C-alpha cells in the first residue's frame, strides 16, 4: 500500500485520497471476473441499469474493476509500457493483438459523420456521450469538428498503419479555480495557437505532466491517437481544450491525432467517455496515463475512497448503473499508466460476452 496526495490538499483529502493498494498477482489466472470471465447466470438484459443484480449472488468480483490481464495476455492484449529517463517504450504487441483491427473503418466513418453533423449544426438525436452534456454551442461544435477531422484522418491511414499496442492514449484534465484567469479560456481547438506566458502555463499545474506523458507515449508508438477528457468543472477553462492546446501547440502532436471529450466532470466520467471514444475507434484497449499524484492512486484496485463509497466503481454504479470495464496498471518505471478496456469480461469470446459493454 502507498500513501500520497498533492501538497495543497486538506488533511481529510490526505487521509482519503493518498492511500492505495495495487493488488498482487495471483498464482493462476482467476476464473471469475478478475480473470475476465462473466459470472454464471450474468444477465445482460439487467446489466446496464442494475449491474449488481445482473451479476448475481456469486458475482462479487464482477462488481469491481479489478482484473489481472497480464496473466492472460493472448486474450487481454495487455502490453506493458516501460519508462526510463522519462522516455516511454512499449513492449512488443502480442500475436493477434494490437490496433488497427482487421475491420474497423465502418464504425470510424459512422461516428465521424455524427460529429460532422454536430459541427455543422445539422445533427439530430442524442449526441455521443462525450458531447451529450450541457455545453455552450461553440464548445460542442468545436469539439465535434476536431473529432470528425481526427477520425476521418485515421480512417484514411488505416491501411498503412503499423501495429500499435493500444488504440488510444488517454489523459484526463485537472481543473482548479485559478484557471478561469487563463488567457486560453476563449480559445477553441482548430483555431491558430495563441502564445501564452509562463505565468499562464503555471496555471495548468499537473496538466503539463499529463499532456507531456501523453505526447511521449504518442511519439513512442503506444497508440495512433490521444484522447483528452475534461469539462469546465472547476473553472471556465475546458480541461480537454487545455490539454489539446498543450499537445498540439506545444508538444508536437498532430492536430488530427487528438480526440476531445469536453463533458467529463469526474474521473469515473473520464473513464466512461474514454470507453465511448475507444469504441468509436473500433478498438478494445486504451492506455490511460496521468501524473504521479492522486489520480494514479485513484485508478488502483483499492483506495481509501472505497471506505466512503467514493471509488470509481462505486460512483459509476450509482451514477450510471453499470461498471465501466477493467483496468490495471501497465506502466513499468512509473506508477501512472494503466491498461483499460470497456469490455469487463474480456476473456470470454468476442462474439458473446467478451464484447459486452454498457458504455454507449
Could you explain the architecture of this structure?
With 360 residues, the protein is of the alpha/beta class. The chain has one domain (42-355). It contains twelve helices and twelve strands. The longest helix is centred in the middle third of the chain and has 21 residues, at 137-157.
In short:
The chain has helices spanning 11-17, 44-47, 51-55, 73-76, 105-120, 137-157, 198-201, 207-219, 239-250, 267-280, 294-298, 312-319, and strands spanning 2-3, 19-21, 81-84, 87-90, 168-172, 226-229, 258-261, 286-289, 302-303, 326-329, 331-332, 337-341. With 360 residues, the chain is an alpha/beta fold.
Reading the helices and strands in chain order gives EHEHHHEEHHEHHEHEHEHEHEEE
How large is the radius of gyration? 19 Å
Q: Report the helical percentage.
A: 25-40%
Tally the beta strands. Answer: 12
Q: Major sheet, described briefly?
A: 6 strands, mixed
Structural class: alpha/beta
Strand order of the largest sheet: 7-6-5-8-12-10
* Total separate domains: 1
The geometry reads as globular
The share of residues in extended strands comes to 5-15%
Spans of at least 5 consecutive residues with low confidence: 5-16
Keywords, please?
single chain; 360 residues; alpha/beta; 6-stranded mixed β-sheet; 12% strand; globular
Write the layout of secondary structure elements.
Layout: E1 2-3, H1 11-17, E2 19-21, H2 44-47, H3 51-55, H4 73-76, E3 81-84, E4 87-90, H5 105-120, H6 137-157, E5 168-172, H7 198-201, H8 207-219, E6 226-229, H9 239-250, E7 258-261, H10 267-280, E8 286-289, H11 294-298, E9 302-303, H12 312-319, E10 326-329, E11 331-332, E12 337-341
Parallel strand pairs: 3-11, 5-6, 5-8, 6-7
Antiparallel strand pairs: 1-2, 2-9, 3-4, 8-12, 10-12
Helix pairs in contact: 5-6, 8-9
